[in-house]
């Protein structure tokens, strides 16, 4: 929840789910239910195949894990918190950016978090699951774009978005250094925030588009043809003189 500028009364962040947020919510819930069925009925644990296992990514090239881990969750509280945050913050960001840019940001931060986790522990057999990397990326974006919004932390304590993101970032950074947290992938959280910040505030790389390159090549070819034709025409005129 958040408060209006006057701070008179709180109201709910999010509203009706936007298209990408709705699709992500449905996909995560469906995969979570499938996890539960596979584990309870078939005794199959999907974490080691579709969760992020850095050793398998580095040594066995299980590259799909960099994305699929985001759709697995470890319990009702885990998926409940992530989906609540996705709805609360993602809806407003998608409304601002549009669906395409929102999905690009979501997967860049989620996959970026997975890459950072893999780089930090390339020989780790620990399986990381959950959308938390991408969710922390959304939190970072929200703090940058709406720094003075008042958010009710734990639905009780009012705090500005920029301070909430700063506190979460510091706690996550310290936890990743201390290797504590009861199994929570703090490195993934930090990676999501870092990639989110780089995407929004980092140096902008030149964008390469195939269509633009083709147009430049076509224009260059036309100029060469024109030069050849012009030279040939001038040569014929000189011969007639």
């Amino acid at each position: 929840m958040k408060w209006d500028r006057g701070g008179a009364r709180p109201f709910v962040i999010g509203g009706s789910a936007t298209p990408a947020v709705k699709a992500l919510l449905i996909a995560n819930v469906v995969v979570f239910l499938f996890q539960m069925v596979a584990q309870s009925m078939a005794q199959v644990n999907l974490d080691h195949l579709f969760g992020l296992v850095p050793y398998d990514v580095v040594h066995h090239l299980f590259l799909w894990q960099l994305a699929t881990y985001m759709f697995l969750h470890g319990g009702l509280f885990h998926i409940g918190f992530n989906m609540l945050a996705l709805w609360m913050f993602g809806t407003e960001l998608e409304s601002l950016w549009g669906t395409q840019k929102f999905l690009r940001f979501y997967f860049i931060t989620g996959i970026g978090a997975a890459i950072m986790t893999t780089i930090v522990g390339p020989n780790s057999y620990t399986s990381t699951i959950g959308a938390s990397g991408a969710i922390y990326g959304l939190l970072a974006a929200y703090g940058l774009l709406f720094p003075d919004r008042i958010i009710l932390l734990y639905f009780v304590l009012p705090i500005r978005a920029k301070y909430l993101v700063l506190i979460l970032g510091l706690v996550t950074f310290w936890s990743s250094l201390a290797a504590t947290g009861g199994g929570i992938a703090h490195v993934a959280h930090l990676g999501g925030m870092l990639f989110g910040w780089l995407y929004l505030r980092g140096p902008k790389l030149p964008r390469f588009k195939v269509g633009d390159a083709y147009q430049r090549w076509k224009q260059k070819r036309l100029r060469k043809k024109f030069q050849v034709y012009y030279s040939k025409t001038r040569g014929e005129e000189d011969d007639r003189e």
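Strands lie at 2-3, 10-11, 150-153, 157-160. The first strand starts at residue 2 and ends at 3.
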